[in-house]
Amino acid sequence: MPLPVPGRIAEALRRSTVHVRSGTATAQGSGSGIILAPHRVLTNAHVLRGRRVEIEDWEGRRVHASLVMTSARRDLALLEAPALRGSPAMLGDSDLLRPGAPVLAIGNPFGFTGAISTGIVHRLAGHDWICADLQLAPGNSGGPLADFQGRVVGLNTMIAAGGLAFAISSRALQRFLSDLRLARTA
Description:
By secondary structure, the protein is α+β, with helices and mostly antiparallel strands. It is 15% helix and 45% strand.
């Protein structure tokens, strides 16, 4: 029996979501990331602790990654992992979201690989933040927030009081990635 549409979308996003581990024995970071292009992963900067970064794909393969670019202000980091295999996720347009729109989040909370949570958009805070009523936990940071067409509309970042979660909008992600393209042409 084929998976229903939301199940197929979630399964495809799970294949584009990785587990990011970083740091040393004394300072460790753990979270999620999104494959955006071959060998490129986007995650939250707060997930990274030190220079040693390891990525685990949805099949359990572990590869080393290096930091390409980071922005502490935006809480974003772009990683490169030449040995990484996986399907890139497609970025959507967060400006098309409205309160009440259904969304799903994929991540690795408490080390559970590919956990899925669904909810609705609660409110939009300008072009940079999306607030949704999702059940997220430590380890979801850096994972995708997606619409029900499977397009990534945000990067899960923090948990707020009252069962609300915040994600960095896809518009803000695109501006961050534009900064990299501009830096390479300069």
